[in-house]
């Protein structure tokens, strides 16, 4: 019989078969973590994802087997199975004892996306009724007074929506500085397409960080050469200024969920019409542009 120390040496010997299995399992864990994170964005809860993936990977199973496999109470497992069946991503098998099986992942995602689309359509239909009902209620007469405000935003989606809103309400001038990592995010969120469509209507000045990544995305955007400048700077956040009156400044926050997890970026932003803050960033933008024009 092998001693524990001998076994450990075999497992952690990178030339051994055991090490290959351990390494393979680690890669599977990371892949599953990515899938779990993505499914959560489709509206599934943590335990719902565990139950679905358990079935998707192992085939038909009884509720008790699923509960044991993922360490979940049997009553809770039954409830989740029924909820997932209502969502259309699980089937009950006509056998005794009752078993369950999962819809393939690609089909399950299609169903979840369609459900989200339907929900959005229903909410859009409800909007008119809700606004009409609100306006029918007697409103207090309040004198509108323009105040300096700020708003905190969290998550890529919320920040992207605010950037779209800021661009849409701009009347004459839109200024934007984007470091290379954020230029990529703006490109993949289609914001740069919307920005390009406004070139004939607005005075748009685009400053980007001078880097190979920035060059790549500028080329992908097919952005006119005379409409952007590359500046030599580092560690500045992305910021956008609308008509020299409103400002959106975005930050990336790097964190790790667990000790062994790959570090992930979270996006946050501040919108404000606070004059002093807008003026400060306006001066920074002008300084960056002035420095680059001086080097040109």
| Beta fraction | 15-25%
The profile of the biggest β sheet is: 7 strands, mixed
Terminal-residue CA separation: 75 Å
Count, helices: 11
In the sheet with the most strands, the strands line up as: 4-10-9-8-5-6-7
Number of strands: 10
Shape descriptor: extended
Class per helix and strand makeup: alpha+beta
CATH superfamily of the largest domain: Endonuclease Chain A
Order of helices and strands: HHHEHHEEHEHEHHEHEEEEH
CATH overall fold name of the largest domain: Endonuclease, Chain A
What would you say the CATH architecture of the largest domain is?
A: 2-Layer Sandwich
CATH class of the largest domain: Alpha Beta
Task: Tell me the radius of gyration.
Answer: 26 Å
Binned, the helix content reads 40-55%
What are the low-pLDDT stretches, counting only 5+ consecutive residues below 50? 1-13, 17-23
Instruction: Quote the average pLDDT.
Output: 82
Number of domains: 2
Describe the structure.
The protein is α+β, with helices and mostly antiparallel strands and 296 residues long. The chain folds into two domains: 4-106, Winged helix-like DNA-binding domain superfamily/Winged helix DNA-binding domain (Arc Repressor Mutant, subunit A, Orthogonal Bundle), CATH 1.10.10.10; 150-295, Endonuclease, Chain A (2-Layer Sandwich). The chain has eleven helices and ten strands. The protein has helices at residues 4-12, 17-41, 46-58, 63-69, 74-86, 105-136, 156-169, 180-188, 191-197, 212-221, 275-295; strands at residues 61-62, 90-93, 99-102, 150-154, 173-178, 203-209, 228-231, 238-242, 246-255, 264-272. The strands form two sheets. A seven-stranded mixed beta sheet has the order 4-10-9-8-5-6-7, sandwiched between helices. A three-stranded antiparallel beta sheet has the order 1-3-2. Strand 8 and strand 9 (246-255) form a beta hairpin. Helix 3 crosses helix 5 (74-86) and helix 4 (63-69) crosses helix 5. The longest helix has 32 residues, at 105-136. It is extended, with a radius of gyration of 26 Å. The protein starts with a helix and ends with a helix. Mean pLDDT is 82; it is low at 1-13 and 17-23.
